[in-house]
Structures are given as structure tokens and as C-alpha cells.
Design a protein that fits this description.
Oligomer: single chain
Helix content: 25-40%
Shape: globular
Mean pLDDT: 83
Distance between the termini: 27 Å
Number of strands: 6
Order of helices and strands: HEEHEHEEE
Strand order of the largest sheet: 3-2-1-4
Radius of gyration: 16 Å
Strand content: 25-35%
Number of helices: 3
């Protein structure tokens, strides 16, 4: 299981392309400072082609997250303009009602966190691996 994280782009880059732009993205992000975020909701994305529903937490401040996503997109030459930065909680199979989960979560939201680390992950054969981790506000190694 993946640790809690905020996704900043989709569709994902091809693994070889992703590896080739990590240095450029890390250098572009080095000037970005950590910031506080709020995770609220829960919300749902529309069902996918397999009729699965993803329940997620919405991120705020949206402007700061979109700015960070833009830095990533510009440095990687990957258009992510219409992507919604979010924290995925679960992808439910077709026919499973997310309502009970949402009811359980609401009293515990919003959650406050500090966004200070970026992990560059690559998906190969359905498995995610971390290629590099960096802290915002510090020069990339």
C-alpha cells in the first residue's frame, strides 16, 4: 500500500521519459518552499471505464497546488493543466457504495498537513517505485 500522497499529474509519463526529466523537475522545484495544506471532502471522481469510483480528499490552497503542478508540468514538458491535485483514498469496484466510508470520514476532516517533500515515482509493470525524493526549499542533490 502506498503512503498518503498527493498526485500532481495524469496521464502518467512513460517510465523512460519520467526518468529522463527527473533532474529538470527537481531543479525547477528546488526554489519552491514548503507550505501548509488542508485536505477536505471526501469527494468522488466520476466512475472510470471499468465503473470503479475513486474517493479522494480535495486539497487546499488550490492556487499553491496548481502552481506546483505547473512547475512540474513545465519542467517535464507534460501538459497537466486540467488535472486536479488530490489525495486518493480508495478506488472502489463497480457496485460498491462509497457512502458509508464518506460518512465515517467526514467528522475527521479537514486534515491539516505540511507539503514539504516530493517523491518522483515511476510505474513499471503495474508497480510503483520511488526514483528520487527531495525536500522543497532545498537544492536538489
Amino acid at each position: 500500500m502506498d503512503p498518503g500522497h498527493i498526485s500532481f499529474g495524469y496521464p502518467w509519463l512513460d517510465p523512460d521519459v519520467a526518468r529522463s526529466v527527473i533532474d529538470d523537475v527537481a531543479a525547477a522545484l528546488a526554489a519552491e518552499q514548503p507550505f501548509d495544506i488542508e485536505l477536505g471532502g471526501p469527494e468522488r471522481f466520476p466512475a472510470d471505464a471499468s465503473d470503479r469510483t475513486t474517493v479522494y480528499l480535495a486539497t487546499d490552497p488550490k492556487a499553491a497546488l496548481h502552481a506546483l503542478a505547473s512547475v512540474i508540468g513545465d519542467a517535464s514538458d507534460h501538459a497537466i493543466d486540467d488535472f486536479t491535485p488530490h489525495c486518493s483514498l480508495v478506488r472502489l469496484p463497480a457496485g460498491v457504495d462509497s457512502g458509508p466510508l464518506e460518512v465515517l470520514l467526514r467528522p475527521h476532516l479537514p486534515v491539516h498537513a505540511r507539503l514539504d517533500t516530493v517523491a518522483f515515482q515511476v510505474e513499471t509493470d503495474g508497480r510503483w517505485t520511488t526514483e528520487r525524493t527531495m525536500h522543497l526549499g532545498r537544492p536538489a542533490p
